[in-house]
Give the backbone structure.
Amino acid sequence: MMKKLNSIILSAFFAIFLIHYFGSCETKKEDPKPTAQVGDTLWIHTKPTLENTTFISNMALAIGKDGTVYYEADGGTLNWESSRIYAINKNDGSLKWKTEPLAIWHPNSNILVDDNGVIYMLSYTKLYSINPETGAFNWEWEVPTTILHEGNEVYSYGEVGGLALADNGDLIFKTNGSGVYYRAMYCVSPQGNTRWYRVIGASSSNITIGYYGTIYDYQSDMGVKYLYAIYPEDGSVRWRKKLNYHGSAANNIVVNQNGHLICSSSDSLALINVDIGEYVWKVALSVSEKQKIVDINGFIYLYDVWSGLHVIDSQNGVEKEILNIGYNCITDEKGRLYRVSLDKFNCYTNTGELSWSFITGGANPAAIALSNDNILYVAGSDKVFAIQGDAPLAQNVWACPTHDNRNTFNFSKH
């Protein structure tokens, strides 16, 4: 009987010991699983107030290699306050940093993020390289006052535009502002050194980098308009084709899945074989805007302010339909379209049916980005919204006007 009682007492003491020991140990609790539903607001960032009023620009947001979100803000014609770039932490929308003022009050390019996360921006006559950790300027490159052309020193100082990222990390851009000076295309290394330049008859359209790193640009020669294919190694011309382009920044040159070019002229849309510079097809199509994207099904989306979004098969140029869903679309891996209007953000199926909507209370139609982890970012005049999505930006197609969420204008980048 005594042995049985001792056994019971020992068991009780052992149980008390276990309860006391494990109860006193720190145990790691699992963080609650995220409960955000598609279309939910994850956070709202408010742009810091400066001494002079500034506004977030109506231009593409950029997403860094680590998920940091970048936007540009300036004072516009209200007070001419110079541009700055702002960085937002992706987890909570808090401000990571803002740069010192850039050269001028309006941006001359989209924010571009290279393969190492370094940020680049054109402002007036300068190219800025920006440290992604601190926002400090790594270096500033400025357009030379003169360049050598056909054996003579010619005046070359003017505004720059059309920033694109070459396959090897070089920066390709051009002078294309107003004034009396020689325009040129420039290639600058990631260290800020000029590798080459060539004198051009510049347009204000963006530059595109296609298969094999070939550079494509709209340029004129003695008043005749051409599409140029340019070797990235030295800026020499591979071929050129007469094309009566509209030279605005909205008229982007798009690369389709086969590597060929989708180009808009004043009254037509064409697919051009990059190997020989000849038409694969050309169709009559006169629209007010020339901005284009391509979805995962090979359909081109081209906007017209009067009729809507034209849906065109990139294989043959046949128009499928016209969707009345508006401007500045991007497309995801499910083939859906996203568009910002003045007061809301809309997600549509590729047949134009509304999937879901988010009220922003005021937004910039072009200030939109879709991350690789399914987060949508939309900016208004002083706020950036992070919205839960359920698919990333489409890969291996021209999914947004700048090609990707780093704004590289390069078909090989993602």
